[in-house]
Amino acid sequence: MSQSLLDRHDHEGVATLTLSRPDAYNSLSLELMQALHSELDAIADDTNVRCVVIRGAGKGFCAGHDLKQMLGEGEEAYYRCTFETCSQLMQRIVSLPVPVIAQVHGVATAAGCQLVASADLAIAADTARFATPGVNIGLFCSTPMVALSRAVQPKHAMELLLTGDLINAQRACDMGLINQQVPAAELEQAVATLAAKIASKSRHTLQIGKQAFYRQRELPLAEAYAVCSEVMVDNMQTPDAQEGIDAFIGKRTPHWQHR
């Protein structure tokens, strides 16, 4: 992990990843995307981590792709590498075995908005702003559209994509792009509280649930129920499910084995 691009801090089961290009509003250079993907791969194998928080340093969360870098390269192969790397990164967030929370302040635009939409949960400062403004510069936000159209209703996604307008945190919350907005001064604590709550659960159970959620979402109703019924049968037989149920009946705190 390049400390100049991405910082990681672990505390009681929560890994906080800070995008660290504040002078560029944490725009996603190829190197930053690669660093973030690499760190998520490491977290996937780290059984001590039960929740991930992604945040940005400086004045904003993330302003999308580094357009200066892309324009400077100016070759099809580089463009292809950039967008494929971004697509793989967003899919890695979804496939990660533990939940990912986006902690949003300032702006989250274009691929930054895509990052928010790809996260499992998102909490934003009430001063945060969101947009997919590619249409304004002749570069439609097609890859951000993939995550956005899965996070919000179609007409809301099209509104953002076709107008390129900035929306405030309340509007983003109303659309379902974020879970909640809080006063800017309370953002860090709100995210920490949510992350700690999630981190108190069984890692194995979190992994089972997250994987099942994304798998069933794309299936017809009957198939979704069939898949999730099997998931519950398997889940019921895990040590943590047996422990959790016994603890609930016995009115005590469960002791997770994370398996």
Report on the structure:
- The protein has 2 domains: 6-199, 2-enoyl-CoA Hydratase, Chain A, domain 1, CATH 3.90.226.10; 203-249, Lyase 2-enoyl-coa Hydratase, Chain  A, domain 2 (Orthogonal Bundle).
- 51% of the residues lie in helices and 15% in strands.
- It has 11 helices and 9 strands.
- It is globular, with a radius of gyration of 19 Å.
- The mean pLDDT is 96.
- It holds the Pfam family ECH_1.
Q: What's the total number of strands?
A: 9
- Uncertain regions: pLDDT < 50 for 5+ in a row? none
Structural class: alpha/beta
In spatial order, strands of the major sheet run 1-2-3-4-6-9
| Whole-number count of domains | 2
CATH class of the largest domain: Alpha Beta
Gross morphology is globular
What is the CATH architecture term of the largest domain?
Answer: Alpha-Beta Complex
- Please estimate the helix content: 40-55%
Q: How big a fraction of the residues is strand?
A: 15-25%
Q: If you compute it from the alpha carbons, what radius of gyration comes out, rounded to the nearest whole angstrom?
A: 19 Å
User: What is the first-to-last residue Cα distance?
Assistant: 28 Å
Largest sheet: 6 strands, mixed
Mean pLDDT: 96
How many separate helices?
Answer: 11
Secondary-structure element order, as H and E? EEHEHHEEHEEHHEHEHHHH
Q: What is the CATH homologous superfamily assignment of the largest domain?
A: 2-enoyl-CoA Hydratase, Chain A, domain 1
What is the CATH topology of the largest domain? 2-enoyl-CoA Hydratase, Chain A, domain 1
Care to give the gist of this entry?
With 259 residues, the protein is α/β, with parallel strands linked by helices. The chain is built from 11 helices and 9 strands.
